[in-house]
Amino acid sequence: MERPKFSKLHFAELLICFFGFIFLLVGFISNNWLSVSKCWSYNGAVKTEYTVDYSHGLFGKCVGGECSNIMDTPPEVVPQDPECSAKPNNWYHKDNRNCKEGRKCMNGKLEKRVTCGNTEYFDLKSQKCTSSRPSCGTCSDWQCRGKSSNSRWFLKTDECKTYYKCESDSSGVIQYYENTVGSNEWYDDFSQKVVTVKPGKCWDADCVKNGVPHSDVVVTDAPVCEKYYKCNNGIKTSKTCSAGETVGIKGSWVDRCITLASYQSQSADDRKVCQNPKCKANPNTGDYTGATGECSSYYQCSSSKMLTLGSCSTSEYFTKDSTIGSCKSTKPAACKHYKCRSRGDGYTRTDGAKCKDWDRCYDSGKSYEAGSCPTGKTLVNPATLAPIITSDVI
Q: Who has greater pLDDT, 294 or 308?
């Protein structure tokens, strides 16, 4: 049989196969057939993400994030952050008026957030917090955050000295405007006018410290402390105690007039500022306090009429003299002996069961003596006030 000859037709078929192989090879390489890539598309707030493992020829590329001729099924559906839905990759303000918080969107997801201080703004250009309001955009003054545009003036505090308003300008930015009245003026927010008579609701300057109202008793004639005013949340009320009384500044007697009969109720804080009512009647003097005859605790009124309370040591006595008085070791005649302050008159064994040594208080504790029974004698009845009763030792 005759062998067929190699014709031009055979040559053409060979060329077609060669170029077809090259075409397919280029298709593999150009469409990432040798690697896995991802593409995605958006439908509202939902992002659909695909993994490209296989596609048709040169027409199955991922171009600009959009996929065509994808063979993989089913696609992966990835929920998007509402703040970044369908937004290009960039920085944004969470609130275009507030401008306190910055948000960075990447591929439909919230990638980063920055929150600035109460008096700062997030600058989209520098992507940092700044103290000055950005010159471009719609950022409003920080003092107006949370407030809408309003041409009415409002009081900054109930001191009624400073008033403000937040009002939109021609570009829609809400700007902050502030005014302060003179020393003898107040702003009446009801009438929207500056007045020279203080409205009743406004704070008194004497009751405001560093812009904050306080509630305290403030004396105006220390150390006498009969005249004072009471601050109640910034409102001042003047008051006067009767002659010889002292107002309480702290403690249970605050805003009450302390009488001479209750002078010992005066608090330690009051004694640092005000004279005691007892010292009003007897300045530059001192006397006993506590139980009668003990002569251990005392009060003193100094030349500044300030009350001092104190106690002498165990073996000393407060002794009144020509001035105020002091603690001394010599017992005044009217005082109990220091060893008799906590006991009644009578004998006491001082050597336990031996019953030889004793002491006694007598004359209502003003006198004291101690002794020992003679040899061969013991103390029989220490409770009696009679002379020592003894008996022979057996």
A: 294
Does residue 13 form part of some domain?
no
Q: Quick one: pLDDT band at residue 12, thresholds 50, 70, 90? A: low
Residues 195 and 216 in one domain: no
Q: What is the 3-state secondary structure (H, E, C) of the chain?
A: CCCCCCCHHHHHHHHHHHHHHHHHHHHHHHCCCCCCEEEEEEECCEEEEEEECCCCHHHCCEECCEECCCCCCCCEEEECCHHHCCCCCEEEECCCCCCCEEEEEECCEEEEEEECCCCCEEECCCCEEECCCCCCCCCCCHHHCCCCCCCCCEECCCCCCEEEEEEECCCCCEEEEEEECCCCCEEECCCCEEECCCCCCCCCHHHEECCEECCCEEECCCCCCCEEEEEECCEEEEEECCCCCEEECCHHHECCEECHHHHHHCCHHHHCCCCCHHHHHCCCCEEEECCCCCCCEEEEECCCCCEEEEECCCCCEEECCCCCCEEECCCCCCCCCHHHCCCCCEEEECCHHHCCEEEEEECCCCEEEEEECCCCCCCCCCCCCCCCCCCCCC
pLDDT for 237 beyond 90: yes
pLDDT band at 389 (very low <50, low <70, confident <90, very high): very low
Per-residue pLDDT tens over the stretch 136-182: 788 999 999 999 999 999 999 999 999 999 999 988 899 999 999 99
In a domain, 110, yes or no: yes
Residue 277 within any structural domain of the chain: no
Total domains, the chain: 6
Of 79, 100, 130, the domain-final residue: 79
Domain membership flag for residue 320? yes
pTM of this prediction exceeds 0.85: no
Average pLDDT, rounded, for the chain? 80
* Domain limits for position 127: 84-139
